[in-house]
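Fold these two proteins, one after the other.
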Amino acid sequence: MASPPTSRLRLVSFAAALLGLAASLVLASPAVLGLKAPGCAPGGHCDRASASAWSTIPGIGLPVACLAAAYFAAALAGLWIWKDGPHPPLARWASRAAALAAILYIGISVLERIACPYCLASHAAALTLWVLLERRTPSSSPRLPRLLPPAATFAAVLLSLGVAVHLQRSRAATQDQRELEQSRSTLASGAPANTPAFAGRFWRGPADAKVRVVAIMGYQCPDCRRIEDQLAQIVRTRTDTAMSILHFPFCSDCNRAITTTTQPNGCWAARLAEAAGILEGPTAFWAVHDWLVARGGSFTDQEVARGLAQLRLDPGPILAEMQSPRTLELVRADVERALSLGIRQTPMIFINNTELRGWNAPDALSIAIRAAAEAPTSTQQAPAAAPEKMIEDWRLEPRQAIPVDAERAVGSATPTIDVVLFVSLQDDNAAALDSRLRAMADRRTDLRYSLRHFPADPACNPAVSRRVHPLACRMARMIEATAIVAGPKAAADLTRWTLQNHRSYTDAGVRGLLDAIPADTKAAFSLRDAPEVSAAVARDVELGRSLNLAQVPALFINGRRLPRWTTGDVDVLDRVIEEAAAGR
């Protein structure tokens, strides 16, 4: 029998491998499932890490996180097989290679300031495994048969993730191409004759350019940097194209819409460029702009002073102006303009006042600019305001086939409008939206509404990695158990009660409601953890995963997701419902 210290060593090794596997899978989830990693806001360290040249395996383009996940899965298989006995020497060399890679990536993350928490967890797990494996006794022989299961696990996981990444990239590329074609078609129909009213303060390119591009961006946004590089090259090579920018840093210092700052130097970078423009004009603005883009918007006091001097600009006045209220107001004005246009992410690109969707497709900028340049001259309206953009986002969503359980739905039996809402029942936003949709279904004769489970708890939803709503799985299972015991109407009553009482939810409250319906309370509670009940919740979760849900509530109207229906004082839900009713 193994000694307690050895057993504890094995337990800690298992925990480290599990931590590394979980962190690696979360890091791989954007490439594998198209989902944002939980807690990783746009433009944050996770985004910057995934956009880094170090994030993919050279030659095949597979995320390094997939390789790490395969390694940790293989380590778990090995630890299970070898137990507390000797391990093959090759396993020790594999752990040393993983530890060396972890040290290398920790150094890179420090130098490039992209230390995301999931990356650090993965690196820590690799180093812990290496240290623990060094303390174990290696086998004196290669023991190749004992290497086969870990090796097979490594190959199987890596192959599976590789296939999933390929499929996700194909889906994303198809969506980008579809959106790009819609934008290209709009641009080909006509371009404005004069400078549009919607623009930044400085233009780069010919004053009489037929094609005018406005990019809303942040200097610490990786996608912005890539797109800006392409755009600057196009402007340098074409005589009919000019560009301008508006600032939208993901930093609460100058952006009221940001609650979690992920671009800590974003406001100062934007204010630095504006200060150069105020004091030295367009040439200085674009020189500082290019310097900031090349650095990813990051700089220290010493670096910015040295950089301005290299650009033959006097650092003293520009740095003083950068800290003035005037630059802050200019950046805030850009933010307000972007918000009025319904910005969801950066970059947001307009060509001749038409939003360029699908900008991530290959050669998208060149294709769209060429279409605008070759179009007949005409007058176009200014870009759509936030409500129109929110509705347009819904129109452009691909239509999904979402099965409806007619017995659980409320409203019309022969609907023109099918509304499906995915919720985590403990979510504060779900109750008000559910109540509003049920009222619509009661009031209208053409609308059917149904609710689906997507609990924000990994205990019953593998699509989420963090327990946000600890009661959500229990709530969903209780409703499904009630449906089996007492039928769909009782389940609907319990659903409404659960949403309305999600903050004070207790088993005693559920018992009181079931007794009042009446329903077989004891049978419902005894069935709550039964396999058939868990399977019913899992069906909704799998449906949500197939629709690439990243957060809830998620609202679908006639098979198309409505990404946003409210922002600030703007609410477009009623307008979208009317448009769906008209069949547009």
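Now the second one:
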Amino acid sequence: DLVETLAVVSDIGVDAIIVQDLVVIHMARKYFPNLALHGSTQMTLHNMAGAVTAREIGLRRVTLARELTLSEIRNIAEKSGIEVEVFIHGALCYSYSGLCLYSSMLRGRSGNRGRCNYPCRDSFETEAGGKSFPFSMKDIALPDDLDSLRDAGVASFKIEGRKKSPLYVAATTAYYRKLLDGKLSEKDRKQHEDDIKTIFSRPWTNLFIRSEDNLNTTDSETVGHRGAPIGRIHCIHNPNSRAPRLQFVTERAIERHDGIQVDLPGRPFGFPVDTLLLMPSNGQGEGKSVFEAPAGSTVQVILPQDHPALPKGCPIYCSSSQAVKAHYRFTRPKPGEFRARKDIAVEVALSRTRISASAVCGSIRATATVEGSFEKGRSVDVMEAAVRQTFEKLGTTNFRLAALSFENQEKLFAPVSLLNRLRRDVLSNLQSQIDDKSRITVAEIQDNLRSSTKPAPDSALQWSLKTDSLSHLTALTPSDWEGIAELVVDIQKDSLPELSAALNKYSEIIGKDKIRLSLPVISRAREEKSLLEKISELTTDGWNRWEAANLSAWSYLAGASKSAVG
């Protein structure tokens, strides 16, 4: 399936594919070298070493982990030699980008395969007996940092849009595009931000872009879509009637069929505005039923009968706006309107007994012939124009006419009906040959991969042990080590003297050839100096078997002898 997918996207001319898996990178480079490769945020690219390795293995661009600071981003963008892309808006994961295993562990649904079940949005009981959302992240939003990121050398800004609507895509891209172009006044900016929030929005955070010590990153009290703030509860009229009414002063225009949410602990309480009453300016008396009320109006909306307790002063949000939906209307394109097309060169020749055509696309040539009896025509130019007009009608095909030649030495005439038939036949033959070549290519690649994949040899059950602290191993007895295939030690936590002493101790127990050193999963710029010192000392001492946690490993180990590092 992977080979077939790569063949299709290669054929239709996508700008790039976003990759996480090293095997996919290898296959794309080997079999589909025309594809540009961008490193996904799933690769947890968070340091200079990882970005340099990404460039060396053929990636054109890397999407950096969301957790980096501006100075780290600037350093990578300036010195790595690879295009840098960063997230500027959207949902956040509690874990480092690309490293969340929570959903997979808890519910068997892997976030790294796009199937996250979002357990980070679940509520947890507190010690006091209440409920909290300690892992629920706010949404990243960096409108005030665009200029700094652009000056830092960032090549592309990324807006997270998984499972979001076309309306959300339109509003967020319009907002950031106008900010980048300097076309938003403060008033218009506030309006655009509120528009986005009515579609989907959690509270916003700038995460760690300005400081790695930022604590304003989670929203532990309420989870889910909020909306744009529009006021606070003033009172509930007729709370015990069949039509209780919520009264407030609206900070933005509101209309019938908008969505309203009241901010309550846990999850907001939402309902549609089915009835909208415009109240007198003093808020007293009977209201007038209206379709729309302007900003600054005192309004009442009828509450559902099963509404929860809604205390005075609770924040109110507009969670869905008809005006915003009308502002960002979109139409679906006609099928084929943006079809990827291949350039073709067509040669047409007309004789007294036949009209023939050949069409060339790359290295593939197809021909077709229509037999007939053709007489002289009245105008050579008219005939040539008819041929060109016929072969420019390629709307339902995958082709675009790049060049056309017409040979008609005897100045003959052929009816348009036969020209149309000729066009259909030659293009059908051309497409069939292209499809056949693609199928053969895919089959050859698949056969090559099958033949190069060797089954694992049968072996007895073995076990390995990995630890990030060698002190954990002191509880093991000599018999516990029997049958161990490998001891893997993460070198980040223990000091170098502790590490060296313990490694020598355990090499005497199980043998040096059964010990593998592991580089840390996360190694930020501030940690690189001490990490590189450890690597240098350990390789000098003959520790040459290593485990790579991410792409940075290849750069970190570059100073060690390639022949010695396993």
